[in-house]
Amino acid sequence: MPPRKKAAATPKAPAKTRRSKLAKDNDLSAEQEREIQEAWSIYREDDAEGYEDEKEGVIATSNVRIVMRALGIEPKAQKDMDEYLEILDPEKEGYVTYAHFVELAAIQMNSKSDETKDEEVEKAYKLFTLGNERPITFSDLKRIAGLLNQDVSDDVLKAMILEANRGGGIGAGVDMDQFREVMSKAGVFT
To answer: Is 190 within 8 Å of 184 (Cβ atoms)?
Structure first.
């Protein structure tokens, strides 16, 4: 009898990113944690004297504002920044550990005011409408998909509009409130 053929391997679904204990302790989503790690890694130092045992390295206090800016949580006032640095580096050694930075970043990311969230939604909305006070149209979605080098069929773009405006018609587009609702459901502006 000939040997049996092995069944073709079934493709596995991509693994979901799991949150670390640090992210869970600080009420961060996996996406927020990934954003922090990406920004941190740009300025990360692994050979800072006295911090060789820090698994995630450290960053110089002079780079904290830049990393916070990349995360969209940069303080507006210098006195706030000075306060953050006092918290992050109370001994004024010139370095900040990852765990301490994550704690501060989590507080900032989770405390965005409703006003700030509304400003972000409005800013994103205006990117679609090129700053015009009108609904997002099919043409806007097609333009954005092209800018992002995404090959999205017209049918999918139309379905997106209909889902966002609850079947109000393709020509009706998506108004600001509908856009805000879609972005909130997607977890973009929570």
So the answer is: yes
